[in-house]
Amino acid sequence: MSRLISVDEIKDGMILAEAIQNRFGHTLLGANVKLEEKHVRFLKSCGIQTIYIVDDSENGSKKEYDDQALEKAKSILSQRINWKPKNDYEEELIELATQHILEKI
Questions:
Q1: Do β-strands 2-6 and 50-54 pair in parallel, antiparallel, or remain unpaired?
Q2: Where are the beta strands (DSSP E) in 7-94?
Q3: CB-based contacts of 85: which residues, under 8 Å, 6+ apart?
């Protein structure tokens, strides 16, 4: 299974799920490459913003967090933003921000 991530999210040791090609069809990095910091710099210099990595975690499902951690993340987020979501896109943005905070705490 693979997962789409931003180049900024690459961590050493992640495995590239699909070959990366430039706009001319030239392969920049082949599939199954073990990624390192040098690859991040290279991809950014080529204008690549997202990649697919191998994701062996429980079918790509989100981690489960306890109620205390979730409340702490929501509290941190409420201190950073002062608007309420008005549509599905903004709801998703809040969910993504909450997940990001949970991964950091």
A1: antiparallel
A2: 20-21, 27-29, 50-54
A3: 91, 93, 94
Structure tokens at 79: 């201190």
Tens digit of each residue's pLDDT (9 = 90 or more) over 23-69 = 888 999 999 999 999 999 999 999 999 999 998 764 445 567 788 99
| Contacts (Cβ under 8 Å, ≥6 apart) of 7 | 40, 43, 44, 48, 49, 50, 51
Exposed, middle or buried: residue 43 (CB in 10 Å: 0-12, 13-18, 19+)? buried
Identify whether the C-beta of residue 25 lies closer than 8 Å to the C-beta of residue 39.
Answer: no
